[in-house]
Design goal:
This protein has 6 helices and 5 strands, in the order ααααααβββββ. By secondary structure, the protein is of the alpha+beta class. The longest helix has 13 residues. It is globular, with a radius of gyration of 16 Å.
C-alpha cells in the first residue's frame, strides 16, 4: 500500500480549489468515491495516481507529500509552520498543525493557525482531532 498516496488523497481535498480551480468539484467527487469504496480493489491506487497526474498542481502536491516522510503532510502545512521558543537560548522548536480526520477515513484537514474553525467533512460532516 502506498501510504503517501492515500494520505495525499485524503488531505488534498481541502486544497483542490487553489490547485485545479473550476475542476475542483469533479476531482473531489472522484477522490471521495475512491476513498469511500473499499470494493474497488487494487485499481484504486492506480486511479488515485491518475487523478494526481491529471493536473500540475496535484502532481506537485503529491511529490511534496511524499517528501515529508513519515508524516506525509501537505506542503501548505509545512510552509505555514511556525516556531516556538521557551525563552531560553537554543533552537526554536517547530509547532505542528493539529490534524483532523473524518472517522470514515476519506478526509483530512490541518488547522493552519490557532483559533481557526474546524470545518465539517465535505462528505460525512464530522471531523475529529487525531
Amino acid at each position: 500500500m502506498d501510504e503517501a498516496l492515500w494520505e495525499a488523497a485524503r488531505s488534498v481535498r481541502s486544497y483542490l480549489d487553489e490547485l485545479v480551480g473550476p475542476e475542483a468539484p469533479d476531482l473531489d467527487a472522484a477522490l471521495c468515491e475512491l476513498l469511500s469504496d473499499p470494493h474497488r480493489g487494487e485499481h484504486r491506487e492506480y486511479q488515485l495516481r491518475m487523478i494526481f497526474e491529471s493536473h500540475e498542481g496535484t502532481r506537485v502536491f503529491l511529490e511534496r507529500v511524499r517528501e515529508d516522510f513519515p508524516e506525509f503532510r501537505p506542503p501548505q502545512v509545512l510552509a505555514g509552520s511556525t516556531t516556538r521558543s521557551s525563552g531560553l537560548p537554543g533552537d526554536a522548536l517547530p509547532v505542528g498543525a493539529d490534524k483532523f480526520t473524518c472517522p470514515h477515513g476519506d478526509y483530512v484537514w490541518y488547522r493552519p493557525e490557532v483559533g481557526a474553525a474546524v470545518p465539517l467533512c465535505p462528505t460525512h460532516g464530522a471531523l475529529r482531532l487525531t
